[in-house]
Amino acid sequence: MTQYLDCVIVEHNPSNKTIDKSVIWLHGLGASGHDFEPVVPELGLDTQLAVRFVFPHAPRIPVTVNGGMVMPAWYDILEMSLDRKVDVVQIEKSAAAIRDLIQREIERGVNPENIVIAGFSQGGAVAYQTALTYPQRLAGLLTLSTYLAVEDTSNYTAINKDLPIKIDHGTQDPVVPVVLGQRANETLTNQGYQVEFNTYPMAHQVCLPQIKAIGQWLNKVL
């Protein structure tokens, strides 16, 4: 029996229709599934959309760069450099847990083509790995203030080669420098992916104009 991650569920369904679209949104290091819960009403989603937002809680593990402190984390960060050595095995384990959540949405009646994978910071790195290696067509990939943590792209699936990808980053981010967002954009664009890259004058966070733009993008891809 599949052991699913604990999740916060928020439904956007003003027309009271059967939910047929989902957004699985991963939080950053040390946060929780509640982190992006308040964003949903601010997105300005279409009133005709019936969307289930799934905000999973990361497991609690020791994090090397934080002195081995145990905290919610999708994977261990081994060093704080631009190259950021990370625990690739743990990233794949987290991606597998997100694939289980995708499968649960499919079993609930949501077509995979109506599922968006989103993530902030650490969660964004797992979102990249989950969506770009997924064997069925998805609706979109949203990555916020994050980076491509796994350099090996050989297991990216052809079916998601034209996946709409939105990358947002703060120009004043002291935690994940904007150059890492730019690097992800360049890597994926050079491989032929459809990437929309946006920066905002902010630190390691989200801002209201960005949230409104994300809502417009979700209205489009969903």
Automatic annotation (TrEMBL):
Pfam families: Abhydrolase_2. It is an enzyme of class 3 (hydrolase). It comes from Psychrobacter pasteurii. The gene is estB. Transmembrane segments: none annotated. This is Carboxylesterase 2. Its EC number is 3.1.1.1. Gene3D superfamilies: alpha/beta hydrolase. Residues 17-221 form the Phospholipase/carboxylesterase/thioesterase domain. GO terms for molecular function: carboxylesterase activity. Keywords: Hydrolase. Belongs to the AB hydrolase superfamily. AB hydrolase 2 family. InterPro entries: AB_hydrolase_fold, LYPA1-2/EST-like, PLipase/COase/thioEstase.
